[in-house]
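Task: sequence design from structure.
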């Protein structure tokens, strides 16, 4: 069985769904600490705008009680800061950017409907938005949460333990996995290790010039039913064997 694992992300980019589509099972890693910073996409992502691009950010609350050892709580316990009208801002931004896109009528209304739920926790909200994206793309990969699998491991050992628990024979890592995965441990466990090497496609966007690394929403609104084909490209070029 082919397995991939990744932290929950808000309206993720194309490469996130490429790896899920290549998997039989995708595990959402909701047990690690919520991370802030310029490289974090747990609570934000980019959309194309007439001016270039902008962040859609879901504000999160500062924890009142820090976990043992300090830091932030796990993603599964991270709360949304609903005192700000973030959902209204998102809806307005999405309509401004994509109402004139070719497939707004097909996807826009059901996407905006997700904002009608009063979300308290970030992780289930991200999961709902991700499932919406998977449904629109036609990706049937099974999804599980790491919090359901009860592993107390860390870093590479955590990825390996989760892979073992679900019976993985192949694990597809993101490109950054080379920095921390213990490749020998995977070999000893009999799990083949592959690294994603995603080649971002160029596709028609409403505004020119083309800007890559937007949320998957940008591809859907502009390319509709062709989105999965464009997303996958020549999928055999998207993986590097250890």
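Answer:
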């Amino acid at each position: 069985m082919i397995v991939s694992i990744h932290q929950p992300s808000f309206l993720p980019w194309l490469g996130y769904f490429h790896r899920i589509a290549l998997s039989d099972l995708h595990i959402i890693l909701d047990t690690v600490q919520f991370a802030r910073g310029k490289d974090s996409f747990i609570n934000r992502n980019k959309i194309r705008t007439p001016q270039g691009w902008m962040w859609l950010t879901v504000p999160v609350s500062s924890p009142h009680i820090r976990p043992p050892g300090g830091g932030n709580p796990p993603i599964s316990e991270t709360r949304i800061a609903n005192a700000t009208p973030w959902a209204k801002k998102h809806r307005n931004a999405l309509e401004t950017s994509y109402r004139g896109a070719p497939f707004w009528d097909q996807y826009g209304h059901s996407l905006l409907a997700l904002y009608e739920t009063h979300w308290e926790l970030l992780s289930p909200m991200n999961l709902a938005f991700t499932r919406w994206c998977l449904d629109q793309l036609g990706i049937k990969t099974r999804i599980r949460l790491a919090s359901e699998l009860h592993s107390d491991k860390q870093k590479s050992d955590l990825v390996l333990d989760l892979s073992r628990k679900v019976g993985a024979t192949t694990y597809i890592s993101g490109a950054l996995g080379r920095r921390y995965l213990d490749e020998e441990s995977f070999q000893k466990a009999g799990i083949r290790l592959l690294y994603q090497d995603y080649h971002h496609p160029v596709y028609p966007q409403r505004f020119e010039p083309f800007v890559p690394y937007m949320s998957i929403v940008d591809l859907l609104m502009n390319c509709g039913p062709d989105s999965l084909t464009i997303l996958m490209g020549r999928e055999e070029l998207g993986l590097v064997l250890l």
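The chain has one domain: 2-241.
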